[in-house]
């Protein structure tokens, strides 16, 4: 009996003593969650409309505002409709747009890409005339302009291919660099504030830097798509921009989703070539890459591209009533920023800016 009484008493005293101990020795996390005001005061990551860059698809024609089937709420705009759309973007406090053009006709090189009356050049002039303070970024790549849908000049021809030792249809690197430099200069001539090469060609940043500098545009920054993965999440974009490859894929230049160390090596190269800003793309499956890039390259501004497929998934679930769109969008954008991105290119930008007001 005595033994059992003693052990019960001991157990009781240990329980109450250890509970008391924990409450005094550590903080109680719930103290700082008790009200919206206190939660706001200790919030570590602040999301704001000026973190956003809004993508715009521009097409030839008049009076056009074509909704993209797989991207509800996102449109292809004709140039005459841009000033009004830009005004609504600016009113929401979004400081920048990035332009993607759908050309009138396509060819193996993508001639409209660097034509002074090309669609992106026209759109850039129209936006800068209507809203000079709006930052215009342009995507510099070949895929929307080439008839084969690839991001560069192809190794084609029987026997007389430019590179007999490379496979038929291979995307040629240095031949493509010459075109990319011409495109960047042409965008700068039209008034673009920042050029953003997305083709993952080796040496693209230095080729564009040399081209811009030689043409008197040494003041134009380069936002390099420095870490761009060969991703299934670009599907809806390829409908929006009509730039899907007619055969094959982009795996000989875009990165393998399995690789993280390689991303740091890629990025170091772009920094050495003179990139002014870096990017990780897509965003959500690559938050670890955003964090590592932020930590390894703390001096450079870092953008993350929350891509079309990421947007489409959220829209589809929200339209089915399966998730609360506002909550999940603010949560995922906050997550991208918390991971280390300074800037977020996102199709949610206008909605998110409205919700943040
Ligand atoms: C290439 C480019 C692509 C995207 C941006 N720039 C497509 C690709 O690499 O196939 C995708 C963006 C998105 O999915 O939202 N010009």
Features:
357 residues; alpha/beta; ten-stranded mixed beta sheet; two-stranded antiparallel ribbon; 12 helices; disordered N terminus; binds ligand PBG
Architecture overview:
This protein is of the alpha/beta class and 357 residues long. Helices cover 41% and strands 16% of the residues. It has helices spanning 2-25, 36-41, 82-91, 119-130, 173-190, 204-214, 235-240, 261-273, 287-296, 308-319, 325-339, 349-356; strands spanning 52-59, 65-68, 71-78, 96-102, 135-140, 153-154, 171-172, 194-197, 227-228, 278-281, 302-306, 343-346. The strands form two sheets. Strands 1, 2, 3, 4, 5, 8, 9, 10, 11 and 12 form a ten-stranded mixed sheet that branches. The chain has a two-stranded antiparallel ribbon with strand order 6-7. Strand 4, helix 4 (119-130) and strand 5 form a beta-alpha-beta unit. Helix 4 runs parallel beside helix 5 and helix 5 packs across helix 6. The N and C termini lie far apart (69 Å). Mean pLDDT is 94; it is low at 1-14. The chain binds ligand PBG. Ligand PBG is lined by residues 139, 141, 143, 198, 234, 237-238, 250, 307-308.
Ligands in the structure?
Answer: ligand PBG
Count of discrete alpha- or pi-helical segments spanning 4 or more residues:
12
Largest sheet: 10 strands, mixed
Rg (C-alpha, Å): 25 Å
Helix content: 40-55%
The structure class reads alpha/beta
Shape: globular
CA-CA gap between termini? 69 Å
Query: Strand content of the residues, in percent?
Result: 15-25%
Number of strands: 12
Q: Overall pLDDT, averaged?
A: 94
Order of helices and strands: HHEEEHEHEEEHEHEHHEHEHHEH
Q: pLDDT below 50 for ≥5 consecutive residues: which ranges? A: 1-14
